TrEMBL record:
SUPFAM superfamilies: Ribonuclease H-like (SSF53098). It comes from the Eukaryota. One of its GO terms (biological process) is DNA integration. Residues 83-219 form the Integrase catalytic domain. This is Integrase catalytic domain-containing protein. GO terms for molecular function: nucleic acid binding.
């Protein structure tokens, strides 16, 4: 619009510096184990992480290491299952390993246990798969001390037929505490999908952080 003194008035709009915004969200994306950008913005919006600012959208929404490290096969169809109503009603358990590369501490196995109700996860690193029972026993004692065993206790556990789970020692211990032990069908990990999915999440986070920082696999 031209004024009487031949000055032109233009409507201006604020333009954000997308480069700096992208750098900020990429930095926090790497700091928090390559979490997806949507959840990362949610954490910042509700001040769930100390020091995490409110983040905008990433221009292209793509992370190269995430694309490389999180590729998977096609998913199986979802099924309808009965859900639990309280914590410790059902624990999903699995043992990952042996890993191709052992850790600096000589660990090659990962024992993962997931609470079906809350999805709270316990993770233990083992040198040998024979130590699985010892870690499970320690977990039971820890839960009894922290959760007040008079009110809550483990009711059921679910695992595959691995010898680290299906043995006389494990059975005797579970019977002594009144814990029911459920097994998934052979070669059917989908029946224990909760912990299998958690295994994938843990491996993806570790793999992507290694790729992003170009560090040796044994770290």
């Amino acid at each position: 619009m031209r004024s009487s003194d031949n000055c032109y008035c233009l409507k201006a709009s604020i333009v954000s510096n997308h480069v700096s915004m992208d750098e900020q969200i990429e930095l926090w994306h790497e700091r928090i184990g390559h979490m997806n950008f949507r959840d990362l913005r949610t954490l910042g919006k509700f001040n769930c992480v100390r020091g995490l600012p409110k983040l905008g959208k990433k221009a292209n929404g793509i992370c190269g290491p995430c694309q490389q490290g999180k590729q998977t096969k096609s998913m199986h169809k979802k099924g309808k299952y009965l859900t639990t109503k309280e914590p410790l009603e059902l624990l999903h358990m699995d043992l990952m390993g042996p890993m191709q590369t052992e850790s600096l501490g000589g660990k090659r196995y990962i024992f993962v246990c997931v609470d079906d109700f809350s999805r709270f996860t316990w993770t233990y690193f083992l040198r040998e798969k024979s130590k699985t029972f010892d870690k499970f026993k320690m977990l039971c004692n820890k839960i009894q001390n922290e959760m007040n065993s008079n009110i809550k206790s483990i009711k059921r556990i679910r695992s595959d037929h691995g010898r680290e789970f299906e043995n006389a020692t494990f059975e005797t211990f579970c019977n002594g505490l009144g814990i029911s032990h459920e097994f998934s069908a052979p070669r059917t990990p989908q029946q224990n999908g909760v912990v299998e999915r958690k295994n994938r999440v843990l491996q993806e986070m570790a793999r992507v952080m290694l790729l992003s920082n170009n560090v040796p696999r044994n770290l």
